[in-house]
């Protein structure tokens, strides 16, 4: 299983970015429960930004409520993070994660993407 994150980059304060993360399993059929985005700023621990359940219930850390929106497309095994009104303090490496099982199994494993750098600077 692999999670491939993309969409990071350099953006000016007040700008927007949309991160994407696609799960793939080399031809195996998978099912995904919870999907989420985390971030890690230099010198800090990795922290939750937002996550979304299979049923679409979302959860946001207080710092990003109202500015960031998490969503998922189960047909594409993809989770998105729409980031608006970006601030310099949003600068970090953003990681996706997902709880994934093979289609015929009820054993879920947590996987992490490789991270995508978001830099907010003028």
Task: Give a quick summary of the entry.
The chain has 122 residues and is mainly β. Helices cover 0% and strands 56% of the residues.
Report the portion of residues in β strands: over 45%
What is the string of SSEs from the N terminus onward? EEEEEEEEEEE
From the alpha-carbon coordinates, what is the Rg to the nearest angstrom?
14 Å
Low-confidence stretches: none
Continuous helix count: 0
Helix content range: under 10%
Class by SSE composition: mainly beta
Instruction: Label the overall shape.
Output: elongated
Account of the protein in words:
The relative contact order is 0.33. By secondary structure, the chain is mostly beta strands. It starts with a strand and ends with a strand. It has strands at residues 2-6, 9-11, 17-24, 30-40, 47-52, 58-60, 68-73, 78-83, 92-102, 109-112, 116-120. Strands 2, 4, 5, 6, 9, 10 and 11 form a seven-stranded mixed beta sheet that branches. A four-stranded antiparallel beta sheet has the order 1-3-8-7, with no helix packed on it.
